[in-house]
Amino acid sequence: MQTNPTQLTDLQKLGYLNAPIPKDVDLVAAIQQLKKEKNAVLLAHYYQDAAIQELADYLGDSLYLAQMAAKVDAAIIVFAGVHFMAETAKIINPTKKVLLPDLKAGCSLADSCPPADFAAFKAQHPNAVVVTYINCSAEIKALSDIVCTSSNAKRVIDSIPMDREIIFAPDRNLGRYLMKETGREMLLWDGSCIVHEAFSFDKIVALSKANPTAKFIAHPESESPVLEVAHYIGSTSGLLNFVQKDPATTYIVATEAGILHEMQKQCPEKTFIPAPVEDETCACSECAYMKLNTLEKLYNCMRHEQPEILLDETLMTSARQPIERMLALG
Ligand code: 13P
Ligand code: SF4
After folding, report:
1. Rounded-to-integer distance, Cα 259 and Cα 217, Å
2. Cα separation of 308 and 168, whole Å?
3. Nearest protein Cα to ligand 1, atom 3
4. Per-residue pLDDT tens over the stretch 52-80
5. What spacing in Å lies between the alpha carbon of 134 and ligand 1's midpoint?
6. Ligand 1 near 236 CB (within 6 A)
7. CA nearest neighbour of 170 among 109, 258, 126
8. Is the CB of 149 inside a 6 Å radius of any atom of ligand 1?
9. Ligand 2 geometric centre to CA of 33 (Å)
């Protein structure tokens, strides 16, 4: 059986996910206790709520979390992130029980690449090497030659012989950025991330003018005009490393606002401003999927060991090789 964000398990329908938790339960202490009792390891992405980040055994970007998921020796991997991340952990460490606090924690980028459409696109370019961003489903990974993250995408593309045609999916913004960085033409899939496309170029320019000493830094999932005015472009861990080493004291940050927690923790004397979004009526710089995970759901998930990521063996075997090729490149 395969799970995905839209297919709820019977247990989930029964509502254990939102099962009432007695008021006197100290969730942080209880989750720490459950980790010990159940021999579970908690992996969390920088876009999670601060309280979840603080509980993580491993906190990081998509690449680091995939690398850790491959190495974990505990019985249970609890993934505080989104579905494709937990799915990747299951594929590369299939004997572990992999839990995701809320199965509905999907990803707009992964959703923008339906497997049947992508298979048809790939069939039109039978000689192309297929490079896919890790933000995609297991089915898309199974149709790929090699996976990448925003941390290692340039290295992955540079590893492909110059005479080979390349398909890059699903993020068109990251793809365009990589074409510039590598000097390679690529056939791009037309997908995008709702969070990174919400940033307003005009408001970023205005905010930068109002804060002339601030540096503007951005994730490569952002649109080209936004990237063109950035002082630095990088993955979440790249952005974090940059602010730690750079001499400036104020940064306007164009990525999901959860990263600001670790930035502020690492650099308490510096100021971090979330980049403004087009629609002021919504918290668009927060990923609604990532934020579906809460301390309560994490607690219930660990208590009941549900929802579990379960994937078809054949699918896992096909999706594993392109991920392992990426991990071998470092
Ligand atoms: P990284 O943490 O790899 O930069 O990815 C960002 C992201 O969008 C995860 O969904
Ligand atoms: Fe997907 Fe964007 Fe959310 Fe990352 S921030 S999980 S790419 S929707």
Report:
1. 12
2. 30
3. 62
4. 999 999 999 999 999 999 999 999 999 99
5. 9
6. yes
7. 109
8. yes
9. 30
Closest CA to 239 of 223, 225, 212, 221: 221
Q: How far is the CA of 81 from the centre of ligand 2 (A)?
A: 10
* Protein residue whose Cα sits closest to atom 2 of ligand 2: 193
What residue ranges define each of the domains in the chain, with the CATH number in brackets?
5-106+289-311 (3.40.50.10800), 109-193+320-329 (3.40.50.10800), 201-274 (3.40.50.10800)
* Pocket perturbation via mutation, ligand 2, pick of 135, 192, 197 by most ligand atoms within 8 A of CB: 135
- The answer to whether the CB of 257 falls within 8 A of the CB of 286 is yes
The radius of gyration of the chain's CA atoms, rounded to the nearest angstrom, is: 20
Q: 258-289: per-residue pLDDT in tens?
A: 999 999 999 999 999 999 999 888 777 999 99
Q: How many Cβ atoms are within 10 Å of 214's Cβ, its own excluded?
A: 20
At 39, the pLDDT band (50, 70, 90 cuts) reads very high
What is the Cα–Cα distance from 66 to 185, expressed in whole angstroms?
28
Task: Give the closest residue (by CA) to ligand 2 atom 1.
Answer: 107
Tell whether ligand 1 has an atom less than 6 A from the beta carbon of residue 132: no
Q: Which atom of ligand 1 is nearest to the CA of 151?
A: 3
Alpha helices per DSSP H over the chain? 10-14, 27-38, 50-55, 62-71, 83-92, 108-111, 115-123, 138-142, 153-158, 172-182, 201-210, 224-228, 236-245, 259-266, 295-304, 313-329
From the CB of 194, is ligand 2 less than 6 Å away? yes
Distance between Cα 21 and ligand 1 center (Å): 31
Q: Residue 26 corresponds to which tokens in the numbers above?
A: 């100290």
Separation between Cα atoms, residue 35 and residue 214, nearest integer Å: 41
Give the CA distances from residue 143 to residues 72, 129, 174, 184, 275, in Å, rounded to whole numbers and listed in that order. Answer: 26, 10, 19, 21, 35
Residue nearest to atom 7 of ligand 2 (CA): 193
